[in-house]
Design a protein that fits this description.
Elements: H1 2-14, H2 19-28, E1 31-32, H3 33-39, H4 45-57, E2 61-66, E3 72-77, H5 85-108
Antiparallel strand pairs: 1-3, 2-3
Length: about 120
């Protein structure tokens, strides 16, 4: 029962549509808001802002503001957030295997004939 509650807690934090995608992007390199907005095809700016704020509150990412002119904000994965890399890698591996499985199954299916 303890593990079920732990899974529920984890999913509560990571359940946003974009949460794991954001984390996986930031595991590879720090990115600016505009880069994330461009790379995450289909995300609205308001949603991105909310997701980034939630990830920062949970200690999974760090928001760095440079003192340069113009001011720039960069987001990077925190040390704590790096603990999710194994999870995102595992999800990616499973997704690749699943995609290949579906592709191979579709290749070997017998085409249906259409009769009128």
């Amino acid at each position: 029962m303890r593990k079920v509650r732990a899974i529920d807690d984890t999913l509560h934090i990571l359940s946003g549509k974009w949460t794991l995608v954001l984390i996986s992007h930031l595991c590879y390199r720090p990115m600016r808001y505009s880069e994330l907005l461009k790379d995450l095809n289909g995300i609205a700016g308001k949603v991105l802002s909310r997701e980034l704020k939630d990830l920062e509150i949970n200690g999974l990412i760090i928001r760095e503001v440079s003192e340069s002119q113009p001011l720039t904000v960069t987001y990077k994965i925190s040390q704590y957030g790096k603990s999710l890399k194994e999870l995102t890698d595992g999800l990616a591996d499973w997704g690749l295997q699943h995609r290949e499985r579906i592709f191979n199954a579709a290749k070997f299916e017998k085409p249906m004939s259409v009769t009128r």
